[in-house]
Amino acid sequence: MQGCKQSAQDQHVNERSAQTPVPTIEMGTVLSERFLLQELLGEGGMGRVYKALDLRREEVQDPNPYVAIKLLNENIRSMAGAGIALQREAVIAQRLQHHHIASVYDYNRDERHAYIVMELIEGYTLDQLIISEYPDGLPAVQSFKIINQLIDTVLFAHHKGVVHADIKPSNVKVMPNGDIKVMDFGLARVMSLMNMASHTDDKEVDAQWRHRSLSDAITPSYATRARLHGRQPIRVDDTFALACVIYLILTGRHPYQRMNADKALKQGIKPERPSQLSKKQWSALQSALDPNIDKESCALNAMSSVFCTARRKTKQQKRKWISAAALLLLCGVVIPVKGWFTEQLPVWQIRFMDADKQVEHITRYMADDARAKQQALQDIYIPVLVERWGRQWATHEPLLTKPAAEQALIASMLQQDLLVANAVAPYFLAHKQFVQSRYDLQQARSKIIIEILMSYDAQLGSHLAASQPMLVSDFMSVYNHATLLDLIAGSSALIKDDPRLNQLLRDAMNEDWAAGRYLPLGEKLQVAKALMPENEDFKKAMVRLSNLMSSESADPIEPLKNRLFLNDNLLDEDAKRLIHPPILQQLFKELKVATSNQLDLNPVYRGYLTEVHDRFIEQGGDEYQWKQWLIKADLDYGRSLANWGQSEEAFQMLEGVLTTQFRF
């Protein structure tokens, strides 16, 4: 019964698609009175993807109101069965819930258009990244990370019974944190499913879609010979395409000079071995790069075994687990119950006590540095910490979009977690899971510091550029930024010691004083004193205002009536526009941590630094000084990695600095 109902719905969608004229999509079109199309993100043989503003999300002030909208191209939408194909793609994509596959939220339609609502992914496509930044291939660490994720993603899809059928660099997005998202799962595969399954009995429709699936949904330079010659997509087609993408990642070049399989074989082109690969890795990749790859090939599994670190270590881990289990059973028999309570019960107390007391109790507990105590911490406390840190800080949500009370709470919680991590770190630098979790905490901290400093600098820049006085709300905003910086970094000196801020505060209060706006002036002085309690000028200004408001006569210092501060011109106009160097240096340092030294993959951070650099140079800044700050940030990051127990990463980082950046 349900199948009949679905068939009827499909037929209805099919008929509507055939009868309704398909209008051209333009920027500014609103779909279903909800999704405002703003930008064309990409276009392929079958469809286009747009950036769209979700008006409902915007209405409730969602900090991330944007989505991606996918529509079929005009020539495809005019065909019978187009709506069915798009709906099938959404169904297939929704089956693939994986952290490296772009999420599909919904299939929808209005009176004119059928479309898919998807996750909007920031970042570069893989081909954009390689062309613009890495024409000779990505660095080894970064490339193997992406290769790992690509192989795992394709294996996951195949396990779910889904073939991508159009794997290529433009369908892989590299996100700001260096991870990847594979896009466009489903559409080419939907064509095949519609041809092979009984979705419709209309032979003409079936023939139309069969033709489309074999012509429009293929990228020739990433297709096997069998696929080029009309075979429906199967798993080995993904394996060949994936191998071509991996070769491109490693070398910056397509293995067959972007020729299709027929032309490449005719000209006898043979890919050369990338220098980063071992013999086993090259052998596995070479098998997958065969345009005549056999449909029963195990090349994908072979690549997984030699490229994916986790899989290579699985057997060894299993042996370790079995040995550990046997050892625990033995220890359970040998160790007396008394020892359990006397040595390990304090750890249970630490585990369940209030967060603000944990550092003190850990320090007291480890005063006598006994091996048994370290083992107790590792077995009972560390797993709980790691699990909770992963749950709370794995993803970064913008802090400043939240209510002020919640901002302070989040910053305090993160700082407390960092204090706990630092307290136990000396005992667990060899504990890989703890070391990684501690680094994740540092990344979360750096992202919040970056958010605070970028917001603060943007706010200051807008006032300096427009020469507009700061309002009481602006004073409060700066004070809130400084308070958060105190909580998360332990000091807000970067903001309090900024001479540009000092000058703006004085300018705003001088203007209120001259205009006789004493009430807002008093409010601003209160905030300024709280922000900079040691500033003598603000204290004297408060006294002057109090005397004026309480005195029955005019201000006794009549010549200075129009000036609240005696030294009110601390900066010249150029100095006001230049960035405060300590803030810039701190941003460099935090950006290295927040992006795992992959700043070039984050368009938001990268765009911000480009803007600041241009402003710095235009105002007479020294390019050499800028590069020196970058080098110092690299060295600081390398030292931090070493302190966090990531000695191998620290060595690679410092080696890179010595071999490249010191040439300036």
From TrEMBL:
Binding-site list for ATP: K70
Domain Protein kinase: 35-308
Xref: SUPFAM superfamilies: Protein kinase-like (PK-like)
Pfam families xref list: Pkinase
InterPro entries registered for this protein in UniProt: Kinase-like_dom_sf, Prot_kinase_dom, Protein_kinase_ATP_BS
Alphabetically ordered keywords of this record: ATP-binding, Kinase, Membrane, Nucleotide-binding, Serine/threonine-protein kinase, Transferase, Transmembrane, Transmembrane helix
UniProt keyword Membrane present: yes
Protein name: Serine/threonine protein kinase
